[in-house]
Design brief:
This protein is an alpha/beta fold. The chain is built from eight helices and five strands; from the N terminus they run αβαββααααββαα.
Length: about 300
């Protein structure tokens, strides 16, 4: 009797939980009723306006709405479902602490210094080469003109005194400029060797940084989804960080999917993959896995 009693009580709890779960899904089912949302907290530290934020949300909506050919998200200023843009410096501090403990910060700083040094040296080198090439072109033009005049006057048996003196002055200048340009070539060749050495050092440091960064991402990467944005069942989407406009739209589309009852899928290229990409500028396209999950939520066969 005791066994039957406990078994019966357990069954009732499961039925209650199942009924609640079904009710929640029906209430926001995109095939039955649109989800109304509003803007909640809006922090200005991200450098975008609220109007821009709304436009990005609208583009995130379209990722799902275009498939169903109807509005499944509707903006209403007083809607209880809130989308928040939250600037939280504690997250940045946590990331910096993780980088420091992992040794990534030291390598990152070292690489940035080398990269800055290389770019400054490269800019100076390019200016020097450009000045040399311009001076060389001018020298060659003047040398060609000088040689033409010398041949012309020699064919006439010689030049008058004033022309001779002018040509002699030009000859002296050309010899001096030739010496200067030869010295400049030597200087440029030295800078070329220095630039190549600096580039090699920079590339080595970049490889080291990429190697450590890969290990860092493997350890801490799983927290990306929750650091960047999250959906909570209390009726909110919180966005904490993003790098580009497309990055923000992707994060919003991902959380909209959760708001509709969608789960994560296994395809890394999917909107509903458990990790959202950053710094992406490619078009956001639903994968077959995304579409299958949407159909499951909508009850579409």
């Amino acid at each position: 009797m005791k066994k039957k009693f406990f078994y019966g009580a357990f069954s009732l709890i499961l039925i209650g939980a199942s009924a609640y779960f079904i009710y929640q899904n029906i209430s926001i089912n995109p095939c039955k009723k649109a989800l109304k949302y509003s803007i909640g907290r809006f922090d200005k530290e991200f450098g975008i306006s609220e109007v821009e934020f709304k436009s990005y949300i609208a583009k995130a909506e379209q990722v799902w709405e275009e498939v169903l050919a109807r509005d499944i998200f509707i903006y209403e200023p007083d809607a209880d479902f809130k989308i928040n843009l939250i600037y939280d410096e504690r997250q940045l501090e946590t990331i910096q602490k993780q980088k420091t403990e992992f040794g990534l910060s030291v390598i990152e700083d070292s690489f940035k210094k080398l990269d800055t040094q290389f770019n400054l040296f490269k800019n100076n080198y390019e200016v020097k080469v450009e000045n040399y090439e311009n001076a060389l072109a001018d020298f060659q033009d003047r040398k060609s003109t000088y040689e033409t005049k010398v041949l012309e006057w020699n064919s006439r048996g010689g030049a008058p005194k004033n022309i001779f003196e002018s040509l002699e002055a030009e000859r002296i200048y050309l010899n001096s400029e030739a010496s200067r340009l030869n010295a400049e070539v030597s200087s440029i060749n030295t800078m070329t060797r220095q630039l190549n050495t600096l580039l090699e050092e920079r590339n080595k440091k970049a490889s080291e940084y990429n190697r450590v960064a890969k290990s860092y991402n493997e350890k801490y990467g799983e927290g990306l989804e929750f650091n960047q944005a999250e959906y909570n069942s209390g009726g909110q989407i919180n966005v904490y960080q993003f790098n580009t406009k497309t990055d923000l739209i992707l994060a919003l589309a991902h959380e909209f999917g959760h708001a509709l009852g969608m789960d994560h899928v296994e395809n890394p290229n999917s909107v509903m993959y458990y990790l959202t990409d950053t710094n992406t500028e490619t078009a956001i396209v639903l994968t077959p896995e995304d579409l299958a999950e949407l159909k499951r939520v909508c009850g579409i066969k």
